[in-house]
Amino acid sequence: MLEKTSVATHFSTTRPAPPSAPGLPLVGSLLPVMKDPLAFFLTAQATYGDIYTLRLGPLEVIVLNHPRHVQHVLRDHVHNYSKGGPIWDTVRTLLGNGLVVSEGDFWRRQRRMMQPHFHRQRLASLTDHMVTAIDEELRNWETATQQPFDIAHAMMQISMRVFVKALFGGSLTPEQMNLVARKMTLVLKHLSVSTLTQALPAWLPVPGRRRYRQAVQAIDQVIFGVIEQRRSGSAGEDLLTLLLHMVDDESGEQMTAQQLRDEAVSMFVAGYETTAIALAWSFHFLTQQPAVYARLQSEVDQVLGGRPPTFADLPQLAYTRQVLQEALRYYPPIQQLTRTADEADEIDGYAIPAGKLVALMQNVIQHHPAIWVNPSQFDPDRFTPEQSATRPELAWWPFGAGQRQCIGRDFALMEGQLVLASVLQRYTLRALPGRIPTPQAVITLCPKAGVWVTLERR
Fold first, then answer.
1. What pLDDT shows up at residue 6?
2. I need a surface site. Which of 77, 183, 210, 211 has the fewest CB within 10 A?
3. CA gap 348, 51 in Å, rounded
């Protein structure tokens, strides 16, 4: 440990600090970041380079904008970069100690217990349930043809139904699903403000704090209710039931009700809204590019021939997956990941002091002009095997990377393929004139005011 500390001190004293982005006194760049974070960070990368220091009020962060930085922080030196600091402390007020935010031995135990339920064999057994949930929701569209239709809201409904089916076995009532969806939207919007204002003095008022706490309590009441049902003998093949009865091989322990709650909420945040947002952006881009739309619809028709999709169809729905991947590149649901350097380090020849917050900018990396050709163009062919082989592996990383990569990655991609295929089987979508959506960066990068289309039954 002494030798490691000595090297860390050497880094911090002999390497220069990254260049700093200028800002206003006291607040730094907080105001323009809050106003339009996408534009700010893309412009900042072009101006200051792949690594620079940014001040957000009293909080100072080193911003990282290249795939090699993802490799460094999330893979090569993952044990030096933890989920500490005010941003993660804020997220923990919602997620507790769930898999997304937990660390150390506890994280390893939780991951070990949950991982088997996200293997492809387990996902294959869920396909029929997912297709049924999608079909149930699509039936509600029958009365919505030939009139303005918010496909972003509809994707939230579908994703919620699919997620509830997989996690809770469909045991939530429609009223409970709607309540959880509303409250989750509220808490995520509040968290987006809180993560930026967490370091401000405690006496400064933060609007919506009480509503946020009440919303978390409402979500907890629903989830703890389902947990209690399962404990009292209400059996099921859903993920919650499997986790409830699982015993960790190494520790001999089971998850407590609080741990189950934390994992359920973490999966909601990591999987429900993010998948819905990726699908909403996919449909937006499809309605803007007729050639892409026609090619995708042709693939769906040829592969499925009018029947419901199955797990075995997914490899043949290759272009469907590419459309989803490109939407995840263009507007990644989570635009950045932050970590805290536990000990001093060096990146690109610059000093990273111990305790410093670093931010890996997912959206910027996935639009990096040195890596992506015409990054502002929507082009699913970027994700053919041939084109994917020509760029760094971590140029595209919407599910994170390394040992902390999202456990639900395959679940989300499978759900996305099934939803895209099922919708295009039944409906033709056209953009509603004058209603071009714009991205709004809360915790997730959602389309502000929805994605409006018209539906026509095929």
1. 40
2. 210
3. 8
- At 7, is the secondary structure helix, strand, or coil? helix
Q: In this structure, what are the phi and psi dihedrals at residue 361, rounded to the nearest 5 degrees?
A: -90, 95
- Catalogue the long-range contacts made by 348-355 (C-beta closer than 8 Å, 24 or more residues apart): 348/50, 348/51, 348/68, 348/69, 349/15, 349/16, 350/15, 350/16, 350/17, 350/18, 350/51, 350/62, 351/11, 351/12, 351/13, 351/14, 351/15, 351/16, 351/17, 352/11, 352/62, 353/12, 354/8, 354/12
Measured at the CA of 31, the angle between CA 27 and CA 36, to 5 degrees, comes to 150
H helices of 76-204, in order, are 86-95, 104-114, 120-138, 151-168, 174-197
Of 152, 89, 45, 142, which is closest to residue 367 (Cα–Cα)? Answer: 45
Query: DSSP string covering 64-85, please?
Result: E-SHHHHHIIIIITGGGEES-S
Tell me the HSE value of 159 on the side-chain side, using a 13 A CA sphere: 29
Task: Find the helix or strand (DSSP H, E) in which 115 lies.
Answer: none
Q: How far is CA 190 from the centre of its chain?
A: 17
Residue 317 near residue 419, CB atoms below 8 Å? no
DSSP 272: I
CB 329 within 8 A of CB 382: yes
- Buried b / exposed e along 118-152 (16+ C-beta atoms within 10 A): beeebbeebbebbbebbeebbeebeeeeeeebbbb
Global pTM exceeds 0.90: no
**Residue 47, token pair as written in the block:** 């101006």
Pairing mode of beta strands 357-361, 59-64: parallel
Percent above pLDDT 70 for the chain: 92
326-374 tens-digit pLDDT: 999 999 988 889 999 999 999 999 999 999 999 999 999 999 999 999 9
Residue whose C-alpha is closest to residue 12's, from 354, 355, 358, 359? 354
| First CA to last CA distance, the chain | 67
Q: What tens digit of pLDDT does each residue of 33-52 get?
A: 888 889 999 999 999 999 99
Q: In whole angstroms, what is the distance from residue 107 CA to residue 211 CA? A: 30
Q: How many whole angstroms separate alpha carbon 271 and alpha carbon 128?
A: 19
